[in-house]
Amino acid sequence: MQDNTPGILGTLTAIVMSAGITYAEQDHDTQISLLFVQTSKAIASDAQSFRLIEANDQTIYFSDRPNRIAGHIPLDRFVKGWSKGEDSFAANPPNAVVSVYETSLEENVTAVVELSAPVMDGSDLVYSYRIVDGAMPTRGGATSVFIDTFGPGGGVGAGFHGVGVGARGPGVTGWAGVAVKNCADGASC
Length: 189
Hints:
Elements: H1 7-18, E1 21-25, E2 34-45, E3 49-55, E4 58-63, E5 70-74, H2 75-80, E6 95-100, E7 109-121, E8 124-134, E9 139-140, E10 143-150, E11 177-182
């Protein structure tokens, strides 16, 4: 499949293609935006970075209706694809909600952050971050990171739909494919 997708969607295509996910052709006018979720057993942070301790080795992605696309990308391939493409996450950092579960609290502790520079360190994933809203806990239990949309009309708030906060920009139309199958180890399906 030839990739004629500009910007962020081109980067996503590179990430998804490198992860061994195949595509089914869709109407070229279909607008697809994907959100990503990463989980870990615990979190530790300082003022510039946070560590997802024993991060799940898969990053989940999904789209909003009407497409309802879902799948997963191996975490190491997601990290390797972070800076691919001219409008990559490295060039245009995503916002994310970091949600930390603590048994002693009634509600999860949440922080809205701008993510950058992901690095794998054994089974841990380390991100640099900048606080957008809230406060990052220095330590915590089970953690989920909801990463802002990758595709048209990203972000949420007034007039947006999905998970995360902030705007990813104007978005792009005309993505020709959607992920339908994840092939193990990048093998051709």
